[in-house]
Amino acid sequence: MKVIVKENYDLMSKAVADNIINYVNNKPKSLLCLAGGDTPLKTFEYLVKAAENKEINLTEVKFVSLDEWVGLGPATKGSCVETLYTHLYNKLPINVEEQVCFFDGLSNDLENECRRVDSFIESCGGIDISLLGIGMNGHLGFNEPGVNPELKCAVIPLDPVTKTVGAKYFDEEVDVQAGITVGLKHLLDAKEVILIANGEKKAEIVKKTIEGEITTEVPSSLARNSIDSSIYIDTEAGNKLSK
Ligand code: F6R
Predict the structure, then answer these.
(1) Cβ(144) to ligand 1 under 6 A?
(2) DSSP assignment, residue 91?
(3) Are 123 and 31 in contact (CB under 8 A)?
(4) Which atom of ligand 1 is nearest the CA belonging to 169?
(5) CB environment 180-202: b (16+ within 10 A), e (fewer)
(6) Which tens digit of pLDDT belongs to each residue from 178-228?
(7) Distance (Å, rounded) from C-alpha 190 to C-alpha 226?
(8) Atom of ligand 1 nearest to the CA of 162
(9) pTM here?
(10) Whose CA is nearest to atom 7 of ligand 1?
(11) What is the pLDDT of residue 210?
């Protein structure tokens, strides 16, 4: 796994966006799987700017949602779908109906939702880029510690850490017990796996991801087994690394 350390969050985000822009311009028919959460927001800003400046060709790109909180949908500010549409999809020159596939966290047939998204990913020939924020417990999407790495799309009970940390996204208290997520099998088989983390609060989990044991207890560490993986961090997130 390549480790790319940038001086600050802004430079880190710019480097991640540049990587995605280069990839897509070389392979216009790409499938991107993009995380919600806070970490990718600045990368999204750079992607929107690149689209405005016609520096990225998005006409044939497809997007798949990484995950959603079960029971939440677009009406809840802070849901994954609301975050991605507000900060990215609605600002890009794309046809969202045709180019974006998103989990419906409100569906009463979540098993079917999983198979629907599996089929979408498979019909695109797999994921090109998985852009993944690292959770405080090392989760990727809602692939929580102890997850089966062979899972494709799945519904997974939330780890207590995820429930506690997740409160930061919502204006009101929400009762969420599970997540629907693209599984590690799809994510880590991507042509490029990009992990991102910034800030002092992520320093411990970044150290475990890069220097700790490769274990399902720290899902982010499993990215080290992927054929092409990189982790972009800022200096604060890297300050517990031994080298
Ligand atoms: C969000 C998601 C989560 C976050 C992770 C990091 O769609 O899948 O796995 O990427 O919890 O969250 P932030 O970026 O808010 O620190």
Answers:
(1) no
(2) G
(3) no
(4) 15
(5) bbbbbbbbbebbbbbbbbbeeeb
(6) 999 999 999 999 999 999 999 999 999 999 999 999 999 999 999 999 999
(7) 8
(8) 11
(9) 0.98
(10) 36
(11) 98
